[in-house]
Design goal:
single chain; 265 residues; alpha/beta; D-Maltodextrin-Binding Protein, domain 2; 2 domains; two-stranded antiparallel sheet; 30% helix; 27% strand
C-alpha cells in the first residue's frame, strides 16, 4: 500500500514537471518600433509578439532578453538567447550556424531632414556632403549593408545609440539627415506632434526589408519551422493585425521605392 502511494505521488510530480512549458529566450535590442526601451523597460512589436505567442499556446514560454545591435550576433551563438525576432538574414548573420523563419513583416528605413521652405524630395538624392545620423550596428542600404568603417569613408556619418536622439539632432539642426525606420515615425509623432510638421520625410527608402526570426538550431528548443507555424497562427487569427492597427503601423508593400543599394531578405 505504501509503495503504491509513493508510486502514485511520483507519477503526479512527473506529470506536473511534464506540464511545465519549455522556456525560449528571445533576444532584442533597441530597434523602434520592434523594440523600444522606455525607463529601462522594453516595449514594442517584439514584446507584443512574445505576449501573443505565450497566450496562443502552452507548450513554450517565450521570455525577452535584452542585447545590443552589435553584440546580438555573438550572444545568440553563446546561447544567451535562442532566437531573435524582426531580423533579416542579410544583416550579417552566419548562414551555417543560424536558421531563418519565413518572413512575417515587411518594413523599411527612410531619411528625414528639417524643413526650411526650399527642400523637396530631391534633397535626398545626394547624401555626400551632408551630416548624417545613424545607429551603431545597423546595416544601411546606402552603405551596401556593410558595417565596416571603410564603407562610410565618403560620408559624414555619425553613429549613435538611439533613434529619438537622432531625430532630435535633426530637429535641433545638429544633423542634416537621419535614417529612421518608417514604421516608427507614427509612434514618434504621436508623442511629438509638432515634429511631424517640421520634418520632411523621404519617399524613397534607404532599404526595404522583409523580417523574420533568426534561430540558433544548436541551442533553441524550438525550430525555425515550428516558430513559423506559431507566428502564422496568430496572424491567421487576426491578433497581429490588431496590434499593428493600434500602433498605426502598416507592413510596407510593393509601392515602396527602395534605393539602388537596398536588398530584400
Amino acid at each position: 500500500m505504501k509503495a503504491a502511494l509513493i508510486l502514485f505521488l511520483f507519477s503526479l510530480l512527473a506529470s506536473a514537471s511534464w506540464a511545465q512549458p519549455i522556456k525560449v529566450l528571445v533576444g532584442g535590442y533597441e530597434f523602434p518600433p520592434y523594440v523600444i526601451i522606455r525607463d529601462k523597460t522594453p516595449t514594442g512589436l517584439s514584446v507584443e509578439m512574445i505576449d501573443l505567442l505565450n497566450k496562443s499556446q502552452n507548450k513554450y514560454h517565450f521570455e525577452f532578453v535584452l542585447t545590443s545591435s552589435t553584440r546580438r550576433f555573438q550572444d545568440i551563438l553563446d546561447g544567451r538567447f535562442h532566437l531573435i525576432l524582426f531580423e533579416s538574414k542579410s544583416w550579417g548573420w552566419n548562414p551555417t550556424r543560424t536558421e531563418t523563419t519565413k518572413a512575417f513583416h515587411t518594413g523599411g528605413e527612410v531619411f528625414i531632414t528639417l524643413k526650411d521652405g526650399t527642400k523637396d524630395q530631391t534633397y535626398f538624392d545626394e547624401l555626400k556632403g551632408k551630416s548624417i545620423k545613424g545607429i551603431h550596428g545597423y546595416h544601411y542600404g546606402f552603405l551596401g549593408l556593410s558595417t565596416a568603417p571603410k564603407a562610410a569613408r565618403e560620408y559624414n556619418l555619425e553613429l549613435t545609440s538611439t533613434q529619438d536622439g537622432n531625430i532630435q539632432s535633426v530637429l535641433m539642426k545638429r544633423a542634416d539627415v537621419a535614417i529612421v525606420p518608417k514604421e516608427y515615425l507614427p509612434i514618434y509623432f504621436k508623442s511629438n506632434p509638432d515634429a511631424e510638421k517640421k520634418l520632411l520625410v523621404s519617399k524613397k527608402y534607404d532599404q526595404l526589408y522583409q523580417l523574420g526570426a533568426i534561430v540558433n538550431p544548436q541551442k533553441s528548443p524550438i525550430t525555425a519551422a515550428d516558430l513559423t507555424k506559431l507566428i502564422e497562427q496568430i496572424q491567421k487569427d487576426g491578433l497581429w493585425d490588431k496590434v499593428l492597427k493600434r500602433d498605426g503601423i502598416t507592413s510596407e508593400n510593393q509601392e515602396a521605392r527602395p534605393n539602388r543599394s537596398s536588398k530584400l531578405m
